[in-house]
Amino acid sequence: MAVVGGVGWGANWLTAYSRHERSNVGSLDFRNRLRIPALLDPQPGADGVKRYALELATGESEFLPGKKTATWGANGPYLAPTLRARNGDKVALTVRNKLPDDTTLHWHGMHLPPAMDGGPHQMVAAGDTWRPHWTVHQPAATLWYHPHPHGSTGSHVYRGIAGVIIIDDEHATAAGLPSRYGVDDVPIVIQDKNFNDDGSLDLTETTLSDDIAAIDNVGVLGDTILINGTYDPYHEVTTERVRLRLLNGSNARVYQLGFPDDRTFHLVATDNGLLRRPQGLTRLRLAPGERAEVVVAFKPGEKAVLRSFKPDLKVSFPTGRFTGGDDTFDLLQFRAAGKLKPSPELPATIAGAPAPIEVPKDAKRRKFEFVATRINGQAMDMNRVDEVVPAGAREIWEIERGDGRVHAFHLHGATFNVIEVLGEKPPVEMRGPKDTVYLPGTGTIKLAVAFDTLTDTEKPYMYHCHVLRHEDKGMMGQFLVVEPGSEDKVPRTLKSSAAEHGGGHH
Ligand code: C2O
Ligand code: CU
Ligand code: CU
């Protein structure tokens, strides 16, 4: 805080303040065809298991014309293939780590045994191979996967390892939503980057000191947008309606999605599943880690740009300016063909979509206060068990944003509904099945949480802020899911994770 005060700082502050309003609107030409991540949807083997092979490695990408960028990716230089499976499938993965660093691969939004979760306890040492496997047992949804090594999630994701997971089920198939992958059912991975003049990724997390208490340090906020690893992208539309599987794969940036003509699009799914009623919207906020499926209608021959407007972050001054609150970005241009193939009518209701989570009257309540980079005043400790939850529990989790900063709450291995936001009923777009949620204001949001029934007395799941710098700085906690009635019998200290598969986490 010594840096605050004095004429010099004042001038710097003004420069920094004005430099931190960013926009690319009007500066793109939409010259590059949108890349569509490869789809891995293997036939099951004789044993009924679907096998996926992923190889994490360094590579070289060309994003900006004529410039080479060193990147990380799975089965390619940047990002990762889309993995597809159905509810009920047995899946097995081979994750080969050819990166120079130890890392993990986490299946964000998946219900699976904690030992398979790919969180900070499942390190895969450089050169090693990890073989997780589980049975998919959750409704249709758009999930994603990314590294999760404690303290370095931000840099590993930023370098490029992230992919989409599509879970199908019979209800999603029957819903009549556009579903031809890459044609009218398109993954849209949104990321912001900073590039150095030589084309290399700028890994600098911030230009602001962590000591300036008034300002939230969220880490990387880029001035250049990549969609599916494509700079300056367009997508050709050949059908009347297109379903976008939106993923905010950015480290810290919150987007406020919409179209310049304010057209209505329909939200059909949130993070963890389909909505029972598609919801018409003109804007959709998407925080880091959140996903949404929307259906957009296009007119023959038109060009329409998906834009991120100034997000209403509901943070304190001047944090908003320094955390992207005044930024606007064109993301992707859609170019509709002169004649569009008919699409199924948008369903008014989606039969079989998950019902609201019912929580018993006497449900257990747990409170988590998010301030700066701490939860309930504590930093993440790999050996400390913060919460013990009985298997299959339905609980109320109250997440309080106790500061004026940008936070997004994420819970592993469970699904929740937001049931209250700062004392009010949540807006419709927050009410669907979720696993990640923006904390929209200083105050409390209440979640009805449905936990899974898989138990493990030694391997925890995580909950944390999905602003990756906050997570890396310790804004994370751990919970065990155990046999109901045994909550008080399990040790609250874990054996050193260094002894686990793949070696240490340092
Ligand atoms: Cu997307 Cu714990 O992570
Ligand atoms: Cu996760
Ligand atoms: Cu945070």
> Spans of 5+ residues with little confidence (pLDDT < 50)?
1-8, 498-506
Which descriptor suits the 3D outline?
globular
Radius of gyration: 22 Å
Cα distance, first to last residue? 30 Å
**Overall pLDDT level:** 93
The distinct bound ligands, ions and cofactors come out as:
CU-O-CU linkage, copper (II) ion
- Oligomeric category: single chain
Looking across the biggest beta sheet, what order are the strands in? 14-13-12-16-21-18-19
Report on this model:
The chain has 506 residues and is mainly beta. It folds into three domains: 32-174, Cupredoxins -  blue copper proteins (Immunoglobulin-like); 179-341, Cupredoxins -  blue copper proteins (Immunoglobulin-like); 365-500, Immunoglobulin-like (Sandwich). The chain contains five helices and 33 strands. It has helices spanning 7-19, 153-159, 170-174, 319-322, 468-472; strands at 32-33, 39-40, 49-61, 69-74, 82-86, 90-97, 106-108, 129-130, 133-135, 141-146, 163-168, 185-193, 224-227, 230-231, 233-239, 241-248, 255-258, 265-270, 273-281, 284-286, 291-297, 303-308, 329-341, 365-371, 374-375, 387-390, 394-401, 408-411, 414-421, 436-438, 443-451, 461-465, 476-482. The strands form six sheets. It has a seven-stranded mixed beta sheet with strand order 14-13-12-16-21-18-19, with no helix packed on it. The chain has a six-stranded mixed beta sheet with strand order 1-15-23-22-17-20, with no helix packed on it. Strands 2-5-11-10-7 form a five-stranded mixed beta sheet. A hairpin with a 2-residue loop joins strand 13 and strand 14 (230-231). The radius of gyration is 22 Å and the shape is globular. It starts with 6 loop residues before the first helix and ends in a 24-residue tail after the last strand. CU-O-CU linkage binds next to strand 7 and strand 32.
